[in-house]
Amino acid sequence: MELLYKVEDKPPVGTSILLAAQHLLAALGAIIAVPLVVGGVLGLSTEDMVVLVNAAMLVSGVVTIIQCRGVGSVGIRLPVVMGTSFTFVGVSIAIGFEHGVAGILGSALVASLVMIIGSFFMPMIRKLFPPIVTGTVVTLIGLSLIPVAVDWIAGGQVGSEGYASISNLIIGFFVLALVIALSQFGKGIFAASAVVMGIIVGFVICAALGLVDFIPVQQAALVALPSPLHFGLSFPISGIIGMSIAYLVTIIESTGDFLALSNVTNTKLTGKKLSRGILADGLGSALASIFSTTPFSSFSQNVGIVGMTGVASRYVVAITGAMLILAGLFPVLGALVVIIPLPVLGGAGLIMFAMIISAGVNILSTTAHTKRNSIIVAVGVGAGMAVTARPELLGNLPEFLKVILASGITTGSLVALFLNLLLPGREKAIEIDNAIEAENVAASEENQATA
């Protein structure tokens, strides 16, 4: 796709701040949701919940900047937004009931070594993801996020009060239509900032209609200082094992996000780059434990923003990291984002997540149309969506398998990966894919020379 700003471009400061706000709006709700869920289930006090949430925003900002800008051999140097991961919710709650928050954070700290050590083997792992597997994984990421956007448009979870009310649907689809119109027909900054403009207009309309609850902003503290080791650390063996499994799952999911991001930013993801990204992920999760919040991973929804707006500048997303740090230090700023009505976020989210599907289809279009490849895509996507649509399928499996397969993205990725290794004709498929890639590169160079 044609990019408005490439990875190394630096838009004007004012423009960059506006574009960075899009990523903040897309990510902040999910970043604070994980500590809120974990803390709520464990019955933590308001003071302890504030520590978890503020630390999540602060460390998210720091790790996002490291991923985007890079520090030595750490950081993928692509426009990646980092935040707390839902992969760790189940295992965190299980550990928390038995060992408290100290057990969660201590287990996560030790188990982060799985990701840190695993990062050094990413060049080998990268070879397991040819275009047919990569395209399947990226498509699954988008498909798995669509139900999230649909629930946002409807106003919450199925069964909640006002779910799918006419007013929610009108607001959600109005924002969706506005984002599409700005992206398709807008020029310059209007096209590039279509998401944030759609959300702002939707927010203003909702506020005018009295649909925005400003109480969280009034109750939010003005300043919140970091509280390292607020809960202490303990290291239960069972907790470390559970967290280690969750980190293995996160490696697969983050790899999928990075592959999707490399596609929408028109950059080649080498094994070395992938190693730097996974290493930043692991070190960021270790830092999260020390600063008293749950582990991290990359955010898929922000890949959709890059794909839709054509803004691939890593410097823009680094500014998002700075905004997250400010939100952690000044909770009232974060509260302003949190009160955005879900239908407004859903309208923008639907098109963002659908763009990830489009990126996956684009990758698959570069592969040979063979029966072998069709089976890999069909079974991989089918397995992933089966778990996403009917998680009850895993109900009778051993606990460690539930943790591994709970994400449809992970399940589909593993199925596609193993099918690619097991089905005959792999070497021939690699030759065909290499030939197709060479043709595409030659055509691209020819087009650039003509232009």
TrEMBL record:
Chief subcellular location: membrane
Transmembrane segment boundaries: 49-66, 78-97, 103-121, 128-150, 162-182, 189-211, 231-252, 315-339, 345-363, 375-391, 403-423
InterPro entries: NCS2, UacT-like, Xan_ur_permease
Protein's membrane topology: Multi-pass membrane protein
Pfam families from the UniProt entry: Xan_ur_permease (PF00860)
UniProt keyword annotations, A-Z: Cell membrane, Membrane, Transmembrane, Transmembrane helix, Transport
Subcellular location: Cell membrane
Recorded family membership: Belongs to the nucleobase:cation symporter-2 (NCS2) (TC 2.A.40) family.
Name the UniProt record assigns to this protein: Nucleobase:cation symporter-2 family protein
Originating organism: Thalassotalea fonticola
